[in-house]
Each structure stands twice: as structure tokens, then as C-alpha cells.
């Protein structure tokens, strides 16, 4: 299991479009993916779970990956958060 803290960089926070990008990318990996915020733990592969966080710009989250490709999955998710959910950047 690997964990990493990230900050929401997207100006509008995590709304429908960023949530769909996160879910799309997370489901490409076999590892389980959870996000911790303000004492809540949600399934990072669930669009409904992501939307219930209502994570605003600047919110701090802890990403948690557990599985056979956890390192690669974490790298991808951290990159998405750091790039404001833009898919055209690595």
C-alpha cells in the first residue's frame, strides 16, 4: 500500500469533469484506490464518491493505492492532480 498527499489544483475543484477523468484513469489499474479527506474515505473509482467529497480548489487529500500496480497508479493520479486534471500533460 502506498499513500500520497496532494492538493486540488483545478480552479473549480473536483466537479463532474475532473471526477470523470479521475475515474477513467483509475479504472485502468488493478489496484484499489481510495481518497481520504476530512475524515472521510471514498472509493476513488466511484464518480459518486468523488462528487460527495465536494473538494474545492486548494483542498488537501490523501490518495491511497493498494495492489499489484500501485506505484504506477499512484504516479498517474498524482500527475493528474498536479496538472489540474489536464490529460495532455504527463
- Domains (count): 1
Order of helices and strands: EHEEHEH
Main beta sheet: strand number and arrangement? 4 strands, antiparallel
Here the CATH topology equals Histidine-containing Protein, Chain: A
CATH architecture: 2-Layer Sandwich
**Average of the residue pLDDT scores:** 92
Globular, elongated, flat, extended or rod-shaped: what is the shape?
globular
* Helix and strand composition category: alpha+beta
CATH homologous superfamily identity: HPr-like
Question: Segments where pLDDT lies below 50 for 5+ residues?
Answer: none
> Rg to the nearest angstrom?
11 Å
Describe this structure in words.
The chain has 90 residues and is of the alpha+beta class. The protein has one domain (2-82): HPr-like (Histidine-containing Protein, Chain: A, 2-Layer Sandwich). 34% of the residues lie in helices and 26% in strands. The chain has three helices and four strands, in the order E-H-E-E-H-E-H. The chain has a four-stranded antiparallel sheet with strand order 1-4-2-3, covered by helices on one side. The longest helix is centred in the C-terminal third of the chain and has 13 residues, at 70-82. The radius of gyration is 11 Å and the shape is globular.
Amino acid at each position: 500500500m502506498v499513500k500520497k498527499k496532494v492538493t486540488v489544483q483545478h480552479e473549480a475543484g473536483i466537479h463532474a469533469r475532473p471526477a470523470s477523468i479521475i475515474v477513467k484513469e483509475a479504472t485502468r489499474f488493478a489496484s484499489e484506490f481510495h481518497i481520504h479527506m476530512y475524515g472521510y474515505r471514498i472509493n476513488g473509482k466511484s464518480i459518486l464518491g468523488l462528487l460527495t467529497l465536494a473538494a474545492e480548489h486548494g483542498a488537501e487529500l490523501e490518495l491511497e493505492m493498494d495492489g499489484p500496480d500501485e506505484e504506477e497508479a499512484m504516479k498517474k493520479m498524482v500527475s493528474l492532480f498536479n496538472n489540474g486534471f489536464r490529460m495532455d500533460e504527463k
